[in-house]
Design a protein that fits this description.
This protein has helices spanning 20-30, 39-47, 91-102, 118-129, 158-169, and strands at residues 10-14, 52-58, 61-71, 74-82, 107-113, 132-141, 144-151, 177-182. The protein has an 8-stranded mixed β-sheet, with helices on both faces. The protein is globular and about 45 Å long. By secondary structure, the chain is α+β, with helices and mostly antiparallel strands.
């Protein structure tokens, strides 16, 4: 299957019920157990209007997923994954462009594993090439050491980050997120 972003119509929209199985399957294979939220919780937050399950489509076919948590002046890109058969064709970069266009007035930020493995370094490089830079904020999120990236590396204070997470995902988050450092 040819999956690059060239010569194709790439769109981003709310995940349709018929796409839930494909979304969940890609989610399961793309993220380790210790970084995955329960899919039912993600769906519930989307139904409550606190999150969006978004599908990346190439010529109308599901090729990727995004899970976003918009609130106030920020939008947390909680998950981004492209179908393994479609990687390295520019779809991830296009997904970032489209998510920025979806939330033009909000600062895009995300959590990423500390770059202590080759895969984590590659992920950091991808985000860096696409304008998402370290903010200097380091956290422990559900036992995983992470750092916060944002458009242009704009700073996000820990208390604003924690408020964002608790408002969108629930107060239970407070017991599982710990400040490590801010440069």
């Amino acid at each position: 299957m040819v999956c690059d972003a060239m010569n194709a119509q790439i769109t981003l929209g709310v995940t349709e019920p018929a796409e839930y199985a494909a979304f969940e399957a890609l989610y399961q294979i793309s993220f380790p157990d210790d970084e995955r939220k329960p899919f039912a919780l993600m769906c519930r937050r989307a139904e409550e209007g606190k999150a969006e399950l978004l599908s990346l489509r190439r010529d109308g076919q599901f090729v990727g997923l995004l899970f976003t948590l918009p609130h106030g002046d920020y939008v947390l890109l909680d998950y981004l994954a492209v179908d393994p058969a479609c990687r390295n064709g520019g779809l991830g970069a296009e997904a970032l462009r489209l998510v920025r266009a979806r939330y033009p007035e909000k600062l895009l930020f995300l959590e990423v594993e500390e770059p202590d493995t080759e895969m984590a370094r590659r992920r950091m490089a991808f985000y860096g090439r696409n304008g998402l830079l370290p903010t200097g904020l380091h956290i422990e999120l559900f036992t995983v050491d992470m750092q916060i990236l944002s458009d242009g590396g704009k700073k996000i204070p820990f208390d604003r980050y924690l408020d964002h997470l608790c408002t969108t995902m629930g107060e239970y988050s407070r017991a599982h997120v710990f400040y490590r450092s801010q440069e």
